[in-house]
Design goal:
Distance between the termini: 65 Å
Number of domains: 4
Helix content: 25-40%
Low-confidence stretches: none
CATH class of the largest domain: Alpha Beta
Largest sheet: 11 strands, mixed
Structural class: alpha+beta
Mean pLDDT: 94
Strand content: 15-25%
Strand order of the largest sheet: 23-22-21-24-20-25-26-27-28-29-30
Number of strands: 30
Number of helices: 24
Length: about 725
């Protein structure tokens, strides 16, 4: 009968860039389903019911049917194991909090062997989901137990460990909406938005425009308060103290009740509110000094009202959220710890995972909560009377959206506070009773201005609308007409592609811009070779894209790279295709004929932007056929000026490049411009006329003038440089 070995992974590949499946990163699996080839889903008793019971979310998978429930329809009617596994893996990733939707499964020319691809935002999570999906599918087939909750919990931990945090991911998604590319620079939340010289960088809610000086000011609460006060921003009265005795003296001078907090703290750590007695003040001082980096502690006048967090981006208020105090009500039987678990921690907004907008509450371990309970004569193990209300946490639970209620004068004061400190993105904390009224009418005050503010309270509020804070941050970093991109030229094929890449780089360099090139001969920055040898790799390509000096980049690629890694860039302005040779070298990828090869090479054309240009070899019929796939314009090139493809293209006013009477000619419609004779070129260069035409077409597409094209060709030497002993 069917054995578990009949669902084998022959190869698992992480395609990090555009590929034969999609523009986004995917994991591709070559899968041998063995005996399952003879057992589609409708022949496996109970499979449908068990999968639906375990994974009810499969109902929204549209599959090829294109409608809600499409996959389940296919599953009931009969589909094969590879296709089922694809959807199981996608759903497991969704359950783990990593939303994905793209997947495809295709048969090969080998019986029982399929190629399956699924979208994943992280390779480690994707591989783990693949393994878990296989185990789940086999359990469903065999009608054996499967611990779905444990597997999802494991995947959720991997998502938290390896994926971007939810705030950073939200900003990156907003960039993607504007077609701004992104590159993750570390395993954490440092992300580059854009390429080369057009890039910006973020680290969660910090940007490359966030001043280190401003961050230092913001972390010094006393300095921040004095600067805000000097600029007319309302702040609570108070002073810095360095001992418990000083704290009590200052509290008496200010007038009770008071607030005590670390002078360099954040996120509400070590903050105690509404302190009325000497014992409370001393205990609060000790807590604040432990939570801060020094014995220095702030004692401030207590401001009655609710805590609010105002998010400032640039000079604008983009979101506002209100805090709420946490209380439990006793039943005469349960401890405070148990009441917290049943009345507070059951809130779906709370959790230990990074995408939870609020943390779980621990009255046994939270120092601030322990102190608050002590002030009420209680501990985590106390049993309140039935109906008795117990304050657990007076602050730090900002989750109610009030953006539409904020008074203009408060918005102005918060924006001013951010500017005074020097923060381009800030979380301004204030306390007031009614955010729709001016602060001076209610003795409200701004208490802090924080760098790197949390965004989850605005993305997942308990009540009210989620705010598009990522969109606001991207608008702050990039003007409406900017997309963070530099001109990228991609060269794909086997005929002279290294030469083409090198020459395009040289021609672009003549415009005075810094240009990077990766090719089979090395990595070049302008005319300087930085790395020798084959650099047609993803990693080499990333080296160009993160280089802040580059104004343009040229990439040589080939079919094997597309199949094994994906292209190193997501989009390009110019894409060159020379030919479709090399089929025999790609048998391991199940590339058997020209149709298969065309499906690979078209990737280069698919990523050309709508305002971009495809440069195609008119002497190759298969390459010519790619023109209809291009979203932008097309420039054809050919050695024969009378090529029929060129003639048709010129007749409709489009651009072509060719050789006529021994000279390289560029033509826009019927208007021709001869650049220079081939005889005027260096001997080694003149031996490769087709490659020269492709390079000229690409540079011309990027607005290099005819004069510079001619000068560049005349001085270019295709001869290899002698190696240095």
């Amino acid at each position: 009968m069917i054995k578990k070995k009949d669902l084998d992974f022959l190869r698992v590949t992480h395609l990090r860039g555009p590929n034969i499946w999609t523009y986004r990163p995917v994991i591709e699996v070559v899968l041998d389903i063995g005996a399952f080839e003879d057992f589609p889903s409708n022949t496996l008793p109970g499979l449908y019911e068990r999968l639906v019971a375990w994974l009810p979310g499969l109902v929204v998978h549209r599959c090829g049917v294109g409608e809600h429930g499409g996959f389940l329809l296919r599953l009931r009617e009969g589909t094969w194991a590879g296709h089922i596994l694809e959807h199981v893996v996608l759903e497991l990733q969704n359950l783990a909090g990593m939303r994905t939707g793209f997947g495809k499964t295709r048969s090969t020319d080998v019986r029982g062997v399929y190629k399956m691809a699924f979208r994943t935002r992280d390779a480690q999570v994707g591989r783990a989901a693949l393994a878990a999906g296989r185990a789940l599918l086999l359990a469903a087939i065999d009608d054996t137990a499967f611990d779905l909750a444990a597997q999802v919990a494991l995947l959720r931990e991997l998502v938290d460990e390896h994926c971007l945090g939810p705030s950073t991911a939200h900003i990156v998604d907003a960039a993607t909406e504007r077609t701004i590319p992104s590159i993750r620079l570390t395993d954490g939340n440092l992300v580059q938005l854009g390429h080369g010289a057009a890039q910006r960088r973020i680290w969660t809610a910090e940007t490359d425009g966030t001043s280190a000086i401003a961050e230092s000011i913001a972390s010094d609460k006393d300095l921040t308060k004095s600067m805000l006060k000097a600029c007319g921003v309302p702040v609570p009265e108070g002073s810095l103290v360095r001992s418990a005795e000083e704290a009590w003296e200052e509290a008496q001078d200010i007038g009770l009740p008071v607030v005590i907090k670390p002078y360099d703290g954040n996120h509400g750590r070590g903050v105690s509110l509404n302190l009325m007695t000497e014992l409370d003040v001393i205990a609060a001082y000790q807590l604040a000094s432990r939570k801060g980096d020094s014995a220095a502690v702030l004692v401030e006048r207590f401001i009655p009202g609710d805590e609010h967090r105002i998010l400032i981006v640039g000079k604008q208020v983009v979101a506002a959220a209100k805090g709420e105090s946490l209380w439990v009500t006793g039943d005469g039987m349960a401890t405070i710890s148990a009441l917290v678990d049943s009345q507070i921690n059951t809130d779906p907004r709370r959790g230990s995972f990074e995408d939870a907008p609020l943390n779980t509450v621990s009255p046994e371990n939270g120092a601030e909560i322990i102190l608050e309970l002590q002030r009420q004569g209680l501990t985590a193990w106390s049993v309140p009377l039935a109906g008795q209300k117990v304050l657990i946490q007076p602050n730090g639970n900002v989750a109610l959206d009030v953006t539409d209620l904020i008074h203009p004068s408060i918005a102005h004061a918060c924006a001013l506070a951010a500017r005074v400190v020097g923060l381009d993105i800030a979380g301004v904390d204030l306390v007031c009773e009614d955010i729709s009224r001016p602060l001076d009418e209610q003795r409200g005050a701004i208490i802090e201005a924080n760098a790197s503010p949390g965004l989850l309270a605005h993305l997942k509020p308990a009540n009210g609308a989620a705010r598009p804070v990522g969109t606001a941050i991207i608008a702050h970093l990039f003007a409406p007409e900017e997309d963070g991109r530099i001109p990228i030229v991609g060269v794909t094929g086997t005929l002279g592609t290294s030469l083409i890449a090198k020459l395009v780089g040289c021609l672009l360099n003549l415009t005075g811009e810094h240009v990077g090139v990766v090719s089979g001969q090395g990595l070049y920055l302008d005319s300087r070779q930085v790395v020798s040898g084959d650099c047609i790799t993803w990693d080499a390509g990333q080296r160009l894209l993160i280089n802040r000096t580059l104004k343009a980049a040229v990439f040589e690629s080939h079919a094997r790279m597309i199949l094994s890694e994906g292209l190193a860039y997501d989009k390009c302005q110019v894409g060159i295709v020379t030919d479709m040779e090399g089929i025999d070298d790609l048998a391991e990828f199940y590339i058997r004929d020209l149709d298969d090869m065309a499906n690979v090479i078209r990737t280069q054309v698919d990523v050309i932007m709508p305002h971009g240009v495809a440069v195609l070899n008119a002497d190759n019929a298969q390459v010519v056929a790619l023109a209809e796939l291009c979203d932008g314009k097309v420039i054809f090139y050919a050695l024969d000026a009378d090529n029929a493809v060129l003639a048709r293209h010129r007749a409709i006013g489009e651009r072509t490049v060719f050789v006529r009477d021994g000279a390289i000619v560029i033509a826009s419609g019927l208007v021709e411009t001869a650049l220079l004779p081939l005889a005027a070129l260096k001997t080694a260069t003149a031996r490769h006329p087709a490659s020269l035409l492709a390079a000229v077409a690409a540079a011309w597409a990027l607005n290099v003038s005819a004069e510079l094209l001619a000068a560049g060709l005349r001085n270019f030497d295709a001869a290899p440089k002698p190696s240095v002993p």
